[in-house]
Amino acid sequence: MASASGRQARGCRAPVACSATSGGRYIFEDGDCMVASSDGVGTKLKLAFETGIHDTIGIDLVIKGIEDGCQQSDCTLKRGETAEIPGFYAEGEYDLSGFAIGVVKKDKVEGDILIGLPSSGFHSNGFSLARRVLEKSGLSLSDQLPRNDGITSTIGEVLMAPTAIYVK
């Protein structure tokens, strides 16, 4: 198996489970590490079906996209197959998942600084709890919310806002 840089992963140690992430990693003999992770957008899909807002959900895959998300983060969209699995999803439903792979240079890790940034929203986590709170509150996805910029949006629109891509 070759990494994105063309180096062979053969001869490196066996895959090591990353305790801090849900990714898997392969450590090269020089100490650099190839990390791979795959994820979906979780129960935010349920909100996409309930609100009918489907044009932003793919951007969340870049974080946890589709073409817009890749363009925002200067990534190439690697195309693959579309699996046909009749009867698995209800009529009109779909699933989304993404895969990321990269190389972490050993000399770039030691001494790195962690920077905290304000969140742009829920991202791809917490939607099961948000839906439960919404249900218990008696509010609906179509109820209006005032925003800081003076514009009014529905609860559904706010929840379906795409995850910010912080790379730029």
Number of helices: 6
Low-confidence segments, given as residue ranges, are: 1-21
Give the topology string: H per helix, E per strand. EEEHHHEHHEEH
Distance between the termini: 31 Å
In total, the number of domains comes to 1
The percent range for strand residues is 15-25%
Number of strands: 6
- Estimate the mean pLDDT confidence: 72
The strands making up the biggest β-sheet line up spatially as 1-2-3-4
In helices, the fraction of residues equals 10-25%
Organism: Panicum miliaceum
Keywords: ATP-binding, Ligase, Nucleotide-binding
Protein name: phosphoribosylformylglycinamidine cyclo-ligase
Pathway: Purine metabolism; IMP biosynthesis via de novo pathway; 5-amino-1-(5-phospho-D-ribosyl)imidazole from N(2)-formyl-N(1)-(5-phospho-D-ribosyl)glycinamide: step 2/2
Task: Give the key terms.
168 residues; alpha+beta; 60s Ribosomal Protein L30, Chain: A; 4-stranded antiparallel sheet; 6 helices; ATP-binding
Question: What's this model, at a glance?
Answer:
Residues 56-104 form the PurM-like N-terminal domain. Residues 110-168 form the PurM-like C-terminal domain. This protein is an alpha+beta fold.
List the helices and strands and how they pair.
Elements: E1 16-17, E2 24-27, E3 33-40, H1 44-51, H2 59-63, H3 67-72, E4 97-104, H4 106-109, H5 127-137, E5 144-146, E6 152-154, H6 155-159
